[in-house]
Specification:
Immunoglobulin-like, 2 domains, 1 helix, elongated
Length: 126
C-alpha cells in the first residue's frame, strides 16, 4: 500500500510538471504583440518598431545586422537606448554601408522585459 501511495504521488508530480511546462510554452509570446524592421529605399535607414500587449520596464533592440542579399553581414550592432511602456520606435542610418547595385535586408532581435523576437525586413535593391 505504501509503494502505491509513493507511485501515485510520483505520477501526480510528474503530471503537474508536464502541464506547467505546456502552460509556459503557450505563454511564450505574451508580451510582444508586433515587432518589425523596415529598410527604406530612399533614406537608407532602418526603422525598428515594437508594440507590446502590456506595459514594460524595458524595450530594446538587443542586436541588429545589415546583410547583403547573399547573406553576407555588412555591419552589425545594437541600439544602446532603451524605452519603457508599450511602444518602441528607433532608427539606424545605414547610408554609409549601402551602395548602388546591391540588395540589402536588416535582421533584428527585439527585447521586451526578457521576451525576445527575431524579425527581418524585406530585401531592398539600390
Amino acid at each position: 500500500m505504501k509503494r502505491r501511495k509513493v507511485f501515485v504521488t510520483f505520477v501526480m508530480i510528474l503530471t503537474l510538471a508536464v502541464i506547467s511546462g505546456a502552460y509556459a510554452a503557450t505563454r511564450a509570446n505574451d508580451i510582444i504583440d508586433t515587432a518589425s524592421v523596415t529598410l527604406s529605399a530612399s533614406t537608407k535607414k532602418a526603422t525598428f518598431s515594437m508594440r507590446t500587449k502590456v506595459d514594460c520596464a524595458e524595450l530594446s533592440v538587443t542586436s541588429y545586422a545589415l546583410y547583403k542579399s547573399n547573406g553576407v553581414v555588412v555591419t552589425s550592432g545594437s541600439i544602446s537606448s532603451t524605452a519603457s511602456g508599450m511602444r518602441y520606435f528607433k532608427t539606424a542610418d545605414f547610408s554609409s554601408y549601402i551602395f548602388s547595385g546591391n540588395s540589402y535586408y536588416v535582421s533584428a532581435v527585439f527585447n521586451a522585459d526578457g521576451e525576445t523576437r527575431s524579425v527581418s525586413s524585406s530585401t531592398v535593391s539600390y
